[in-house]
Amino acid sequence: MKNLQKFLNKFIAPIAKWVSHNLFFSSLAEAFMRITPITLGGALVLLIGNFPIPAWMQFLQKVGWATHY
Questions:
Q1: Which phi and psi angles does 42 have, rounded to 5°?
Q2: Is residue 31 included in any domain, yes or no?
Q3: Phi-psi region of 57 (alpha: psi -120 to 50; beta: other; left: phi over 0)
Q4: Which of 48, 68, 67 is nearest to 56 (CA)?
Q5: Per the domain annotation, does 50 fall within a domain?
Q6: Spatial distance between the Cα atoms of 49 and 65, rounded to a whole number of angstroms
Q7: Is residue 24 part of a domain?
Q8: C-beta of residue 60 within 8 angstroms of C-beta of residue 66
Q9: How many CA atoms lie within 13 A of 23 on its CB side?
């Protein structure tokens, strides 16, 4: 475990420090953090609408929320 910690501190830490202080990469990370809730919300809506249980699909067709092909 100590060898891994030494390796990370010696090689990975300087790169991580540089990336965190770089304007482009910090802006990119901030953008991804801000868009994550929207992505998760969309995924949840798609999961609810396409849940592969026959009873759920019949319920969606009954209330008129099923996709029309």
A1: -65, -40
A2: yes
A3: alpha
A4: 48
A5: yes
A6: 8
A7: yes
A8: yes
A9: 0
- Report yes or no on 69 lying in a domain: no
Sequence length of the chain is 69
Structure tokens at 45: 């809506």
Candidates 48, 29, 52, 30; CA nearest to 40 is: 48
Cβ atoms within 10 A of the Cβ of 29, count?
13
Check: CB of residue 66 under 8 Å from CB of residue 56. no
Q: Which two tokens stand for residue 44?
A: 């949840």
Per-residue model confidence as pLDDT tens digits over 6-49: 999 999 999 999 998 999 999 999 999 999 999 999 999 988 88
